[in-house]
Sequence to fold (223 residues):
Amino acid sequence: MSDNLKAYMVSESGEGHACVAFAVSGAPARQAGAGELGTDWDGIESCRRAPEFDAYAPGPVPKRALYDAGWWFECGHCGHRVSINEYHEYRSDDEGNDAAPEDFGFFERGRQVYCCRACMAKDEADDRTRAAHDAALVELVALKYPEVLVVSYAYWNIPEPKRSEVRFTLPGLEGMVRWIIGENTVSVERRDVENFKRLYSPGTSATPEIQPARPPSAFIASN
Ligand SMILES: [Zn+2]
Fold:
């Protein structure tokens, strides 16, 4: 079927964002392109044939091919424009050594494009750090509540680890439990307060420390 599909360059009004959509004619291409760009029919400035990309039907066109054809991307790490038509400012590395020109240009990792090898490496390192922190947070929750079912959200705040936040589910509770790492209290939904006291903090049931609640949450001492 992809024999009938032709490539169209669909451009958004204003922002300068564009994509390549494959369709049998202009109208469905415009529709598909608008969807991909996160806008609607009226948000599209132009939709025109791009026969140079026909060979990639049914898509997507590799980012490298778009780059080679003069399209530009934003570096996934520093925001610098990644364009074959623009001069790169070759930066020096952390030790002040001049960076090699071949380390600049188009670099791709996963869904991201980078302006230079260093940006790609930094992003990769950030991902590894984030993954390690997420794993550490999950471990902290499991230490506090070995019964934990699912940790659905873990946010590690780099400058101030104590603001790191996790949300998780525990057997016997309907809603999420929220815990700011470092605080003695966790927050549970109002409907879970009684069950939480009974199941997870029996020692505190006599004098629960319930702080002013922002509905539907209430705060309760957990140990
Ligand atoms: Zn960059």
In short: Residues 145-221 form one domain. The chain has two domains: 2-89, 145-221. The two ends are 63 Å apart (CA to CA). Residues 117-144 form the longest helix (28 residues).
